[in-house]
Amino acid sequence: MILPPTLIFAFIVLGTSSVHQDPTEYERAVIFRLGKLLPAPKGPGVILVFAPIDRMVRVGCARS
After folding, report:
1. Cα–Cα dist 53/33, whole Å
2. Which of 17, 20, 27, 64 has a Cα-to-Cα distance from 46 of 20 to 30 A?
3. Would you say 47 and 28 are in contact if contact means Cβ atoms under 8 Å apart?
């Protein structure tokens, strides 16, 4: 059975919806890949996080 192209497109959109993360200007993202910390914090801006192996934690950098 061959899947119709619209169904394939829907799977791709739903699968990548958790990949796009966007911390605000006063936040940075710390990425853990397979439980280990990546060398530098990411952000601000668009960050691609591969959900099965990466975990993103938002860190606020705003001064009070």
Report:
1. 6
2. 64
3. no
